[in-house]
Specification:
about 300 residues, alpha+beta, Pseudouridine synthase, Archaeosine Trna-guanine Transglycosylase, Chain: A, domain 4, five-stranded mixed beta sheet, 19 strands, about 35% strand, globular
Length: about 300
């Protein structure tokens, strides 16, 4: 997560809510965030689930109190549409890098490719690429990679729920990948190519969904700029409620007295109890209060309080 709070500036407001940006290629996730933050004239903003500069697609932007859900969105599953260039490997794993290796592409039919893709479904171990933002000994890997250094990276367990083959031609492979957090699609493409007896890099990457958010809810940057021409309120009207990021969680409702204690950080008994775990917490009149944890003995423990405008 990256959070931005640039201090006081003229016309900045305490804006709360979520915006699903269809990030364009050629800018970083933080640059995209800053652009929309200025358009909204918002005081505080953050993004979650960074996309590489060359990648496009869903980038959840959080404003005001909604920045508190960034950590939860990082845990969300994601869906990507990826186009691979077969026969060419680059030092970065994508089209922005230099070609480091070429290889013949085997003449495989669709069934053969689908069998290869199926090998990567389920829980698998993946070694993070050198061109990534992971830190080792306080240094980001891409900083070391730019200096020509290669360090040993430990494999991490990830989960691939599904890989659908959308298109295959002589040197072009297009797939839809549904996966867990922490999955590097560039590495996945390299590993798939290796299993097929060749090399490859990610030519295009588009994120279609994050958690329960869907593509039809996205707004592109030109659309945001057009709305903001009428003033920040026009764009603010497109913001989604903060609790929508947690819509797959169970919810509970508290009467006024219990809601007051919950907001003061006190654990409260929950009538009827419920299964232990995280829940969305509301007042009886459905005002969102925050995130709590239900314990086995029926107590609701505050974990994150949201101070949203009524």
């Amino acid at each position: 997560m990256r959070t931005v709070n640039d201090g006081v500036r003229q016309a900045a407001a305490a804006v709360d809510g979520l915006l699903l940006l269809n990030k364009p290629a050629g800018i970083t996730s933080n640059q995209a965030l800053q652009k929309v933050k200025r358009l909204l004239q918002a005081k505080k903003a953050g993004h979650t689930g960074s996309l590489d500069p060359a990648a496009t697609g869903m980038l959840p932007l959080c404003f005001g109190e909604a920045t508190k859900v960034c950590a939860y969105l990082l845990e969300a599953d994601k869906t990507y549409r990826v186009t691979a260039r077969l026969g060419e490997q680059t030092n970065t794993g994508d089209g922005d890098g230099e070609i480091t290796q070429t290889a013949e592409v085997p003449d495989l039919d669709r069934d053969s490719w689908e069998q290869i893709l199926a090998q990567f479904c389920g829980d698998i171990d993946q070694v993070p690429p050198m061109y990534s933002a992971l830190k080792i000994d306080g240094k980001r890997l891409y900083e070391l990679a730019r200096k020509g250094q290669v360090v040993v990276r430990e494999a991490r367990r990830i989960r691939i729920d599904d890989i659908s083959l959308l298109e295959i031609s002589a040197t072009r492979l297009v797939c839809r990948v549904k996966c867990s957090k922490g999955t590097y699609i560039r590495t996945l493409i390299e590993d798939i190519a290796k299993a097929a007896g060749t090399v490859a890099h990610t030519a295009r990457l588009h994120r279609e969904s994050v958690g329960d958010f869907q593509a039809e809810d996205m707004l592109d940057l030109p659309g945001a700029e057009h709305l903001a021409e009428a003033g920040p309120d026009a764009l603010r009207a497109c913001l989604m409620p903060t609790d929508l990021a947690l819509s797959s969680w169970p919810e509970c409702h508290l009467p006024a007295a219990a809601a007051g204690r919950f907001c003061q950080g006190q654990a409260v008994p929950l009538a009827g109890g419920g299964a232990a775990g995280r829940v969305r917490v509301y007042t009886d009149d459905t005002r969102f209060l925050g995130v709590g944890s239900l314990t086995g003995d029926g107590m609701l423990v505050p974990r994150r309080i949201f101070r949203l405008a009524r």
